[in-house]
Amino acid sequence: SNFQTVNAQEFSKCVATGTKGEINIVLHPNGALFKGNDIKRAVQTGQAQLGERLLSAHENENPIFGTDSIPFLVNSYEDSVKLYGAARPELDKVLDKQGIVLLYSVPWPAQGLFFNKDVDKVADMKGIRVRSYNKSTARISELTGMEPISIEAAEISQAMSAGVIQSLITSAVTGQDSKVWEQLDHFYQVNAWMPRNYVIANKGTVDALPDKAKAALKDCSAKAEANGLELSKAANDEALANLAKNGMVVNKPSDELAKQLREIGETMTNEWIAKAGDMGKAVIGAYRK
Description:
This protein has 289 residues and is α/β, with parallel strands linked by helices. The chain has helices at 3-18, 36-45, 77-97, 135-144, 156-161, 172-177, 203-207, 211-245, 255-288, and strands at 50-54, 100-107, 112-115, 129-132, 147-150, 168-170, 186-188, 196-202, 249-251. The chain starts with a helix and ends with a helix.
């Protein structure tokens, strides 16, 4: 029932209708077919024709995959769309060389911080075990003194109940899906970044389609991208209300915490540009223009 999966279901129906049943997409939600880290490789090798993945989890392959997870670079859905537009040409080039076609992308709501106590400054985070799902979350953990633990979204509830993690850097929606109020009681709307899910396809599979089927796939991808954006906005509003309804304290960060996090964000933006080189400068330059 997660909005990303709901959107994928609508995309699948659109493709089936647009191709008059020539393409039938079978969904396997929640890591049922391949675990998160294996999805991109499965699409690349043709084990699966399509997959949905946080490409930021693969930033070690290429910095462009981590563009959407640079902390405090975007602060709204409008910013997220603009950054995606700046990065898309480079993303397409890199994925094409890997035998992958990017069909569409949908942002998650802004990432916030979940804790089981009041946090008014960065020093209050020291030593807390936090879920890490990409290089950005691992680096933020390092800069704030938290201990990063790599956990896939489908494993959050189990990891929290077992005491493996004590905190999350994630969206209100993921917090809601994982019923974080059973273990944690504070959510801070720090708007850290807006990571994206990307629906990708095997290039050989797409290239082999008849022209009409390719056109339908492209049309449905554009619709899914637009529809997913609106679903994300609605899901965020609903999730924030549900966190509060289930007893969580939903707050903006203190002025001191917000200032310290912005400083961390500037550090990490500069680190990313240095790592990404001319490509990184071009993408950030186009975004900020």
